[in-house]
């Protein structure tokens, strides 16, 4: 049984997809997708030997070696043009690492129709990458599991990239519109955290770096509070 987080990632993979799951660890996601007839075939990519071994064992145990290939490679290095991958999933890592994987493997995304990305933190870096690289955010989701809040971003290639406002980059264009209870909880908590940091900075000796950091945090607090207030 998949975690709800991975179940929600799976929900955004269309039927008949050829999937590459990067940073697959135990390969639960590709196994689920193939076992449930969603993915035709899949590649599970892992850069670390331990998780690679556990992915291989899982695929063997599920008797899916005919449909799932486990590859030891960094990022999109696991994907070859002849694989015909249509969907790339990357889940359970920080946004900046997901961004680096996409940026370093850009040329391998040529035939890929959809990216389903689940950053644990800093989703903004992925949204910035999307805008800079001709991918548009077609959907987003936010969910809470075991007291942690996760975001899922669904990207598709477009000819015309839509510019995003600073608040859309930070909080997500779809999630902002949806304005769910979990979304409000996430940003209320983030704001409180930033305010705590700002007030702890008040007692420290003022340096140019500190002043800059304080200004950046205050800017984010203002931005987020404005969004939370507007929709209420
Ligand atoms: N995707 C699974 C999930 O969401 O439950 C596993 C997440 S696990 C926390 C992150 C995995 O990404 C680790 O197994 C790690 O070895 C792998 N990883 C980190 N950097 C990677 C890279 N550049 N290429 C491939 N895998 C990577």
Account of the protein in words:
The chain has 232 residues and is an alpha/beta fold. It has 2 domains: 4-163, Vaccinia Virus protein VP39 (Rossmann fold); 182-231. It has helices spanning 4-11, 28-35, 49-61, 95-104, 124-132, 166-171, 173-178, 181-202, 208-231; strands at residues 17-22, 39-46, 68-72, 87-93, 114-119, 135-145, 148-157. The protein has a 7-stranded mixed β-sheet with strand order 3-2-1-4-5-7-6, with helices on both faces. Strand 2, helix 3 (49-61) and strand 3 form a beta-alpha-beta unit. Helix 1 (4-11) crosses helix 2 (28-35), helix 4 (95-104) packs parallel to helix 5 (124-132) and helix 8 runs antiparallel to helix 9 (208-231). The longest helix has 24 residues, at 208-231. The two termini are 37 Å apart. The mean pLDDT is 96. The site of S-adenosylmethionine (SAM) has 16 residues, from strand 2 and strand 4.
């Amino acid at each position: 049984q998949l975690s709800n987080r991975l179940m929600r990632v799976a929900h955004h993979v269309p039927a008949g997809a050829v999937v590459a799951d990067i940073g697959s660890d135990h390969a639960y996601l590709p196994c689920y997708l193939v076992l449930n007839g969603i993915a035709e075939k899949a590649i599970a990519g892992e850069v670390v030997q331990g998780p690679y071994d556990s992915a291989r064992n899982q695929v063997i145990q599920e008797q899916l070696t005919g449909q799932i290939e486990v590859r030891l490679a960094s990022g999109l290095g696991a994907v070859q043009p002849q694989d015909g991958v249509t969907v790339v999933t990357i889940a359970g890592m920080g946004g900046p690492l997901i961004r680096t994987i996409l940026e370093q493997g850009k040329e391998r995304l040529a035939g890929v129709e959809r990216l389903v990305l689940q950053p644990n933190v800093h989703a903004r870096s992925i949204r910035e990458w999307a805008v800079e690289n001709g991918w548009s955010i077609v959907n987003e989701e936010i969910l809470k599991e075991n007291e942690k809040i996760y975001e899922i971003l669904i990207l598709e290639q477009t000819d015309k990239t839509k510019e995003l406002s600073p608040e859309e980059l930070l909080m997500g264009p779809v999630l902002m519109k949806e304005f769910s209870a979990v979304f409000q909880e996430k940003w209320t908590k983030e704001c409180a955290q930033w305010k705590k940091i700002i007030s702890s900075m008040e007692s420290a000796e003022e340096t140019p770096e500190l002043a800059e950091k304080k200004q950046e945090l205050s800017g984010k607090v203002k931005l987020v509070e404005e969004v939370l207030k507007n929709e209420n």
